[in-house]
Amino acid sequence: MTGTLRSRAWIGPSGKAGFIARHHLRAAGFSDTQFDGRPIVGIATTWSEMTPCNLNLRGLAEHVRRGVLQAGGVPLEFPVMSLSEPLLRPTSMLYRNLTAMELEEQVRAQPVDAVVLLTGCDKTTPAALMGAASVDVPAILLPGGPMLNGKYRGRDVGSGTDIWRMSEDLRSGRVAPEDFAEFETCLNRSAGHCMTMGTASTMSCLAEALGMTLPNAAALPAVDSRRAVLAELTGARAVAMATAGPRPSQVLTGAAFRNAVVVLAAIGGSTNAVLHLLALAGRAGVPLSLDDIDAAGREVPLLVDLMPSGRFLMEEFAYAGGMPALLHELAGRLDLDATTVGGTPLREAVGPAPSDPGVIRPLTDPVLPAGAAIAVLRGNLAPRGAVVKVSAATPSLLRHTGPALVFDSLADYVACADDPDLPVDADTVLVVRNTGPVGYPGMPEVGNLPLPARLLAAGVADMVRVSDARMSGTAFGTVVLHVAPEAAIGGPLALVRTGDLVRLDVPARRLDVLVDEEELGRRAAAWVPAPPAAERGWVRLYTEHVLQADEGVDLDFLVGGSGDGVPKVAF
């Protein structure tokens, strides 16, 4: 059985190559028993003090280590670039592919027989899954878990979702600065990622639906002792996977992705998940398109009543039964024969019915009917697609025609958003461009533009906004995102002018500018691209090779994988 272990190519040889690997490991306190053919399990951690959401991963790594040791493996922890949604600039999305590439190369280059992926904050989970899919060493993911509910003056508040509400109220004068400061201190009460159904929670749920985690990995709070137990079980499971699998290629199948898009609709998940699923499918070699995601959104009702589409937070979701309970409700719509990292089919991960049917609703009594999830739009403004989160939008604005007010950059809009003379009313369609993968660069979460101050003061709570950017999974509003192709590479969004009528028709899945094709052709002929965002480094590499939103915003040369082949030895 030891002959199947990759690590033996490093520490097994009797000559100089084996000596060099072994004697340096002895410096770390390794004994002879740890070189006798035991699997080496890498613990890839995105812990960083720069990523507050992931601060509990250091402790979880110790519990994973204990599980590895108890199962007879050898744990070796190593760091992976950590992506902090609140701190990284210009946007953490700029670095998702870099983290995925780093993880892939580290796992391939090191004596690892299996790897545990410790993630949490938004981009760390998809990045880890993408890297693991491309190297295809047995891998199992453990998210750090959501933080506890925020508590503000007797009510629960959610990270992100209530920030957007309170910050707009602050701008309009409905909330005093001292009240906002108190709210800020009450929001994040523990370690963990956002406890709303933002991108971090969404990607944890989808990782569980994909079969890349053990059951209950998505929802248990970061500080719940059961997550530490789960970490130990994850470490032990990784030891078994080192010799028996499954590998990511055996888990990340077409069936797994079909299950994931069903779950995405049922949880009211983040629009960011569309990009991450497309990119991950590209790494796994599985066909997946925007149309597949739109089809699930049309057919699957919203069952999980969480912010921003509902009322509750991840604590309630966990206590109601979490993902196993949701799988119970969705069982008839899922491929339960799909393989999981547990070595068993997904049906083994299905739990009992939800303990609180108000949080996880049955199909017969959904939060919102089918069609309330993410919708994919096309039209002359988005020939390759755009997305809108129906459940977070204002129903009366899902069919809307209004004059565009166009800004060539986010900075241009922000500079005048509070101008009392801004020529805008409730019917205006705000258009901000050059915020896509190439244009910003990195496609930041700015699509949910703050409303003009004078409209806020007049009581306007939402308006149609269109951009080639993303938005936080915790955000809400009638916000059209991911317009592809983006303006910076000459997409139709670059041709819109202030005053043009823009028509949004979500039921018909259309986004159009009401300008004739001849005029658009003249504008296209006059369009001049902006100079490159950078002349060197990662940003240059990124902007020269990044794919558009409909392809997951991966780098073109990273699609697919190179496998787990043992690299050459230099001696």
Descriptive notes:
It is a single chain. The strands form three sheets. Strands 7-8-12-11-10-9-13-14 form an eight-stranded mixed beta sheet. A four-stranded parallel beta sheet has the order 2-1-3-4, sandwiched between helices. Strands 5-6 form a two-stranded antiparallel ribbon. With 571 residues, the chain is α/β, with parallel strands linked by helices. The radius of gyration is 24 Å and the shape is globular. Helix 3 (57-70) packs across helix 9, helix 5 runs parallel beside helix 12 (272-284) and helix 11 (254-267) crosses helix 13 (290-299). It has four domains: 1-30, no CATH class; 38-149 and 189-349, Rossmann fold (3-Layer(aba) Sandwich); 150-188, no CATH class; 374-526, Glucose Oxidase, domain 1, CATH 3.50.30.80. The longest helix is centred in the middle third of the chain and has 20 residues, at 225-244. The protein starts with 7 loop residues before the first helix and ends in a 26-residue tail after the last helix. The protein is built from 19 helices and 14 strands. The mean pLDDT is 96.
